[in-house]
Each structure stands twice: as C-alpha cells, then as structure tokens.
Amino acid sequence: MTRRVRIALLAPALLGLGTLFAWAIAGLPPFGEYRGPYGFVLNQIVVPLRHTTNVVMATTFDVRGIDTMGEEFILYASVLGVTLLLRDETGARQVERNTRRLRDDTVRLVGVLMVGGGLLVGLWLVAFGYITPGGGFPGGVVLAGAILVLYLIGSHRDYRPFRNEHVLDPLEGIGTGGYVVVGLAALVGGLAFLTNLFGFGQTGTLASGGSIGILNAAAGIAVTIAMLLLFAEFLETYVVPLEPEDVGS
Amino acid sequence: MTVAATLVPLQAVVFALVVLGAPLVVLTRDPLRQALVNGVYGVSLVLLFVVLAAPDPALSMLVVSGIAYPLVILAAIARSRGERRRPKELGDD
C-alpha cells in the first residue's frame, strides 16, 4: 500500500473519529461534578455499617465483593496465560550461570535498604488498606517489587525461593482460593455468598470491617505471588538476550 | 486561601504535565527508552490522581506504571531482540 493510499484512508477515519471524540467530550458533565447517586450513598452508609474508614476498600471487598473476586481470577488467568506462553524448560537452568555478579558495594547497600523499606511500605499498604488508602492490590505489587530488588542487587541465592514454583503455586492457591473460602463460609452459616462475617469491630482500627480484612489479606497474598510468578517467567526470558561478555564466571 | 483554592492551579500544572508527557512517550523511538519515558509519564499521572484527591487510584497507578508495566515491556523487548540475535550467533559459530 502506497503512502498516498494510506493517507487517503487515514484522513476520513481521523476526521470521523475526531468529530465523534469532540462531540463526546463536549457532552461530559463539568469537571469535578459528580451526579451520583451511588458514590453519595456509599459515603453515607459505609462507615456506620462497616466501621471501615476507607470507603473504596469497603466498596471493593464488601458492597461489590463478588466483582473483586472476578478481578482476582482475571489476574490469576492472566498469570496462567503468561506462564503458558513464556514457559521455556531449557532456559530455566541457565539463568544463574548467565547473570553477572554485582560487585559495587554501594549499590548493594542501597538495594538492601530498598528491600527492607519496600517490604515495610508494602505490608503497611496491605494491612491498613481498609483504614487508609492502599489495600491488597497495590500493596501486593509493592511487596513483590521489593522482593525483586533482591535479584537486581545480585543476591540470586536469596531470591531462589521466590522464583520456585513449588513454593509459589500453593501460596497463589491460598490467596486466590482464600477469597472464595471466605465467601463460602457465609453460605455454610446460612447467609448469602460473601456476606460480611466476624463482626465489624471499632471504627478506624485494624480489627474493623469483619470479612473485609481477611479478603484484603487474601488479595494481598494472591497479588504478591502472582507478580512473583510473572517475574519468574520474565527472568527466564531475560536469559536469551545476554551478550557473551555478560556471562561472567 | 482554602485548600481547594490552592489545588486548582496545582491541578492545572499537573494537567499540563500530563498533556506534554503523552506525546513524549509516543515520539520516543527506541522501545527500551520508551519504557523508561513511559514510567516517568506514569509518575505524572500519579501526581494527577493525587491533586484530584484520589489516593487509591494514585497508589495503583504508581505500582502499575512503576513496577508491573515496565517489566512486561522489558520482557517483551528482551524476547524479541533475543530471537533476532539467535540466527546471527548460530552463523558466527
């Protein structure tokens, strides 16, 4: 296809899309104006009903808890897909032989501090997710990222358990399955699936929210392990492009 | 001046950052650099969520644009470059 034909095809398409886009933008409500009603209702009912001060988390893990279960399984299925696509049994064993040792002590020291700091921030985000902004999803990625720094600073031996699928797979099952188990526990008690159990505790403390805290922890585990499984697959992939001079002994 | 009144110019500045950052990502040609520029652009989106008083999406954006997404891109680059190099190495042998 010549350049002229491509431009001839692009120009009307761009014009049409641009017109529709401008039309859509012009029809939006003014910036910052929310027309409700769900946000207003949630802001009114969540703190008195669930005793959690982060309305976002009470919404994701309680009011629409079943959607979040679906989201957890979306993540689970995505990681499964990446694993199936990238799996390369031959490359797996070469990784540690083909990576260069990091000799700079300053970088290693900063890295070690980053691992500790990152783990702390991640745990804090997960633990206090339903009191302050955060929660199992962002917290889990921070935790996994902090653990990955172990690999980046060359502590490959310390990183080994975090890329071992025999360790990771059962934990991923506990995280993803734990969410369903909490939902089923309500069914056993004669209530609807995912009904909030365990009492709501005192507002603004870690012992508030009932099931929200447990579901949040389950999501935290599921996300952390899902990311570590992804990293494990990626590290196998990184092996391929290493230059011969990078292969230190 | 109230907090809300202070936020309006701040929001305007961050909006401008986002508008300027997006074409920078598109105009970067090298995929490896593009991954880095995209990370920086992600930080501007994080700032946008912060000044719009949405801390939860800000945290999610931070971890997605800072940790998860660059790693996916890097893995994809590593794999495609490796596959291109392989036949050449075989030829050298």
Explain the layout of strands and helices:
The complex is a heterodimer of chains A (249) and B (93).
Chain A: H1 3-26, H2 38-50, H3 55-63, H4 65-86, H5 89-92, H6 95-98, H7 105-127, H8 136-152, H9 156-159, H10 165-188, H11 211-238
Chain B: H1 3-27, H2 31-51, H3 55-92
Helix pairs in contact in B: 1-2, 2-3
Entry summary:
The complex is a heterodimer of chains A (249) and B (93). Chain A is mostly helical and 249 residues long.
Approximate shape of chain B = elongated
Number of strands of chain B: 0
What is Rg of chain A? 24 Å
Rounded to the nearest angstrom, the distance between the terminal CA atoms of chain B is 72 Å
Largest sheet: number of strands, sense, barrel closure of chain A: none
Strand content of chain B: under 5%
Helical region count of chain B? 3
Low-confidence stretches of chain A: 240-249
C-alpha termini separation of chain A: 51 Å
Describe the protein in words:
The complex is a heterodimer of chains A (249) and B (93). Chain A has 249 residues and is an all-alpha fold. Helix content of chain A is 69%, strand content 0%. In chain A, α3 (55-63) crosses α4, α3 crosses α11 (211-238) and α7 (105-127) packs antiparallel against α8. Chain A is globular, with a radius of gyration of 24 Å. Chain A starts with a helix and ends in an 11-residue tail after the last helix. In chain A, 32% of the residues are buried. The model of chain A is unreliable at 240-249 (pLDDT under 50). Mean pLDDT of chain B is 81; it is low at 88-93. Chain B has helices at 3-27, 31-51, 55-92. The interface between A and B is medium-sized, with 24 and 22 residues.
